[in-house]
Design a protein that fits this description.
- With 89 residues, this protein is mainly alpha-helical.
- It has a domain of 59 residues: Multidrug-efflux Transporter Regulator, Chain: A, Domain 2.
- It is built from four helices and three strands, in the order αβααββα.
- It has a three-stranded antiparallel beta sheet.
- Helix 2 crosses helix 3.
- The chain is elongated.
């Protein structure tokens, strides 16, 4: 089989694989070493990404942890934020 045809077949197989992002409903499932970036925080807090940045500037969210050029909240920080939001409701 020609290599170009083999590559095309592999691309088709990979494109058919469904990739899903699992949204954790349980706050205990948050990994402590993972950084949750603004897009993921917006999904979890049910708001827009720009709102996450505004919440950070107002002090409603703790200071973002920065690793290299990546900024976000760690698992324990996110857990505390979600617990606080639940208490306010």
């Amino acid at each position: 089989m020609p290599s170009a045809l083999k590559r095309k077949r592999n691309r088709i197989k990979r494109s058919r694989i469904k990739r899903r992002r699992v949204i954790e409903d349980d706050a205990d499932a948050f990994h402590p070493a993972r950084l949750y970036r603004t897009k993921r925080l917006a999904e979890l807090l049910d708001c827009n990404e720009s709102t996450v940045w505004k919440m950070r500037q107002r002090g409603d969210l703790p200071a973002f942890t920065q690793v290299g050029s990546i900024k976000g909240l760690t698992g324990p920080q996110l857990k505390a934020v979600l617990k606080q939001r639940e208490a306010e409701r």
